[in-house]
Specification:
Structural class: alpha/beta
Radius of gyration: 19 Å
Strand order of the largest sheet: 6-5-4-7-8
Strand content: 5-15%
Helix content: 25-40%
Order of helices and strands: HEEEEHEHEHEHEHHHH
């Protein structure tokens, strides 16, 4: 076993599994070490599809990517869905809807005895002001995600919310500490967009690796990542701008995470240095507009 002081990034390959069995087009994130078995689960959009509840749009065709297996996993303790921004008109961004559809379908595949939960992650974002209800209360991103699942016929008792996070780092940290640890989950599926996947994967792997070190339980968690396609959502220049920002943010995260040795070191950094969660930096929250910080083109993806 590696020493407790060794950076977590060197532990990840031992502590977290990575597969990508469920996507909505041919594109997906896949383990380079795994065999890939493709199973056509649904026909294309012109066959055997019904409109989504509540609107006239239709689902994209589903194609499973199952590394080294003849079927998708059905033993998840939780499906974790990452929010992707809000609109002020009450509608969902297309990339958010695709994440939700992947998560809903994945959840339906789970065995009844597992009592798999759907964890809706997201309180808001530092890049835009919060969306308010008609009564003037904050409408958290996670609340909108849960409403979609309820409209899809998923029981409220099967859903959970995480509203403390304001970015992907917070998604990973609070999903780990507020839900996975106290609920004693071990096998999780994480759903987000393809453009968001590399950074999300790195963050969630680091958070759960840190938890394993603190628990002194190497190999406790198995993480499985499911990507929703970006195809046809954004103009090319907008997607390129977001991918460029994602690459820069991923590099910055890896530099930061290299110093983590356990969950306590993550906690200290998050609450002392991260702009969204550290009191020493709370005056910075929302001061710089999203367009100034993110860039006008990439802002269209938040």
């Amino acid at each position: 076993m590696m020493g407790a002081s060794e950076p977590l990034l060197r532990k990840i390959s031992r502590t977290c599994a990575y597969v990508a069995p469920l996507v909505r087009t041919n594109r997906c994130w896949q383990s380079q070490q795994s065999r890939k078995l493709q199973i056509q689960n649904r026909a294309d959009s012109h066959k055997q599809q019904s409109p989504l509840q509540g609107n006239g749009s239709r689902r994209h065709g589903l194609r499973w990517q199952v590394p080294g297996a003849s079927d998708a996993r059905t033993d998840l303790d939780a499906v974790v869905i990452l929010a992707g921004g809000q609109r002020t008109d009450g509608k969902l961004h297309e990339w958010v809807r695709r994440r939700l559809e992947v998560a809903a379908d994945l959840h339906r595949l789970q065995r009844a005895d597992k009592q798999c939960k759907l964890l809706c992650c997201g309180g808001g974002t530092p890049h835009r002001p919060p969306v308010l209800t008609p009564q003037g209360f904050v409408l958290h991103e996670a609340t909108e995600l849960a409403q979609f699942f309820e409209d899809e016929g998923i029981m409220k008792e099967q859903m959970l919310k995480e509203v403390a996070s304001y970015d992907t780092i917070g998604n990973g940290y609070f999903a780990t500490t507020i839900h996975a640890l106290p609920a004693q989950w071990q096998t999780l599926g994480i759903v987000t967009s393809d453009f968001h996947m590399p950074r999300s994967r790195a963050i969630f792997e680091a958070m759960f690796a840190a938890a394993e070190v603190s628990l002194k339980q190497p190999g406790r968690f198995a993480l499985h990542f499911y990507g929703a396609s970006d195809e046809g959502i954004f103009p090319e220049e907008v997607l390129a701008a977001r991918l460029e920002r994602e690459a820069a943010s991923l590099a910055a995260w890896r530099r930061t995470a290299a110093s983590f040795t356990d969950l306590a070191t993550v906690h200290h950094w998050l609450h002392q240095e991260h702009m969204c969660y550290a009191i020493p930096r709370q005056d910075e929250f929302g001061v710089v507009s999203g367009k100034e910080e993110v860039g006008a083109k990439a802002m269209g993806t938040y």
